[in-house]
Design brief:
Elements (H helix, E strand, L loop, with lengths): L2 E6 L6 H12 L4 E7 L4 E6 L6 H10 L14
Antiparallel strand pairs: 1-3, 2-3
């Protein structure tokens, strides 16, 4: 049975990130589909939980920095 999860990815903000995230996750055995949105900063993954764990998917995104808050420069006074 397939499972779909949505992962918040604050550091996913451009189309180049969408392409990288899709490629990164689709290479994992058991992942069937990946929808990534740079506008909404989310990734939706459909996968077979018998072949890959949800934690492994989250870990892969974390390793690449997509789960970190996007830092913005602050103006000094």
């Amino acid at each position: 049975m397939k499972k779909t999860i949505t992962i918040d990815t604050p550091a996913l903000y451009g189309d180049h990130h969408v392409l990288e995230v899709r490629q990164l996750l689709l290479e994992i055995t058991g992942v069937d589909d990946v929808y990534a949105s740079s506008a909404f900063h989310v990734v939706e993954v459909t996968f077979d939980p018998d072949k890959v764990k949800e934690a492994d998917l989250v870990s892969k995104l974390s390793e690449r920095g997509y789960l970190e808050e996007l830092s913005t420069p602050q103006e000094r006074e």
